[in-house]
Amino acid sequence: MIALAVALGLAAHGGDRARTAWDRWIDATELPPLSVPVGTEVLARDGTLLRAFPVGDGLWRLSPPQEGVDPRFLSMLVGWEDRRFRTHDGVDRRAILRAAWQAVTHGRIVSGASTLSMQTARLLERGATGDWRAKLRQARVALALERRLGKDRILDLYLRLAPYGGNTEGVRAASLMWFGKEPRRLTPAESALLVALPQSPETRRPDLPQARAAARAARDRVIDRALTLGIIDAEAAGTARATLLPDRRRPFPAHAALLADRLRRENPGAPRIETTIDARLQAAAERLAARAVAGQAEQVSAAILLADHRSGDILAQVGTAQFADSASGGFVDMTRALRSPGSTLKPFVYALGFDEGLIHPETLIEDRPAAFGRWQPQNFDNRFRGTVTIRQALVESLNLPVVRVAEALGPARLMAAFRRAGMDLSLQGDAPGLAVVLGGAGVSLADLVEGYATLARGGRPVRLHDRPCTAEPPGAPAFGPVAAWQVANVLSGILPPQGRAAGRVAYKTGTSYGHRDALAVGFDGRFVAGVWMGRPDGTPVPGAFGGDYAAPVLFDLFDALGPRTVPLPPPPEAALTVPNAVLPRPLRRFAPAGELPPPGPAPRAPEPLTIQFPPDGAEVELTSPALVVRAKGGTPPYNWLLNGAPVAIRQAEPVAELPASRGFSALTVVDAKGRSARVEFRAVGGG
Prior knowledge:
Shape: elongated
Structural class: alpha+beta
CATH superfamily of the domain at 27-242: Biosynthetic peptidoglycan transglycosylase-like
């Protein structure tokens, strides 16, 4: 210590030649690597830490928070460790001389002289603490660090590297571990403990009974120094001394665990990964998932997805209810796994039927036994209702009516509509069959929620995303706004579970074959959500129904939104909201193509119904507010629909003048026999 003091004094106060040699000696210092590896952090949309990962060797070390560290903690740290930190050049010569004199007069080391810069040098090199050669090396590195980095960068390195016991380094990891909070706001007692621990992290760990007395004594000495320096007043010091020490190490946050795992794999080495997740809603969704599986059969899990369908931001994503339970498939993200959607695809079949002008919510349809080739579908309860409306068929989730409509539309057109809505279905065979509409395909919960977001947005698709991004330009509408509203209107009339208020959420439940999957998906004017329950390995859960298992969780999730919920929108102006008796004749009763005519002479088959103008996929220049459209064939009268809404009926000629506006539109014509033709076009120009 004395030799170090003499050497530093001679170098600092010698002549020009000595100072030049001194400068060269410092400038020639080979610094240790200055990049300090930190664990990846996955952050919520407001910067809240969702999940942290240790660095490669299992060490918990995190970057200091972007919002900074509590200023009072920094004042306590500097006041305790290095009061002249802002004025010395890396080595405090006065402190060295004082320590040397005390060592001579007392015959032992009474106080240290290491500055924060020297301590940072030691932490960077993982060097020894007591050897004079190590001290000299630390002094040289500290001087070089001051010249090359400056005070703030040195302090940042110290805040990352300071040891806090066990496998924890850095003030941020320590604050989360000991207090479960970020270090931007610390109490005086918390700040004092975090100042005291790095001096002897293992002998002052407050979670070890044999070390608690030493931890308290060291903390209180820091409090006394802070009081002396005027950093805190006497009242705050008294409160701090009376504060109990933490008695355990807290686990680091692990919210959105499976999402965080995936994002870290997709972004290797990224120190911070921002997401669109809402921290409060994520925590609420995780609690709901855990509560939903409590008391259920063994290995039953749950998955939840909540998004803002206006922006596409995913706000909560729970891939499993038991992340730590590998026996229950806790490692499988069930928001992305392919499972049977049960009856949750039925609304899309009806939406396409509305859009094509084949049906209306009040159209009558038969719920009677029927065969489709060799397939004879049954209703879930093995009962048939006879003649029902489309509205009743969807509300009661009847199978025969939706298969009849699907047959009229054709599986290929249905699959195209599913894709436009954002759902990528996985088929068992090469070609889709009618069984797809009853759950005979695989789809992920994420895709299913994206499809319902399309319905919620009036038929306009949106790409759901969990990372902040620029919104993608909307693609072609999957359905017209009238058809999407009609589906939402029907779904909002389904009675919610457990006596809750109806009309607030448009939702549909689904149960896959053999009770393997229980689903509920729904939306209001702003949010869309989906809930899955079942076993990740696909084994049945006897008695599991979407309405009993998943629907209550879905409504609990919407309740958690509180005042942020938005009512469902009113009907578009073009929506036809009338009873069956007032509907255009072709829409009063569903009559699919190929239905057998009454007995008698076979009538002459009419020319097939087609739309001649505008051609399918055409871009049409508008020269006036009206567009002249033309069909050919079929049997009059002709019922014209624009984006699913009736706009004109022509008794004889298949020509009509329709109102038109710029953008994508779907045009449908239906003749007296229920035959239809449909084209999509884009109108440009005009006013």
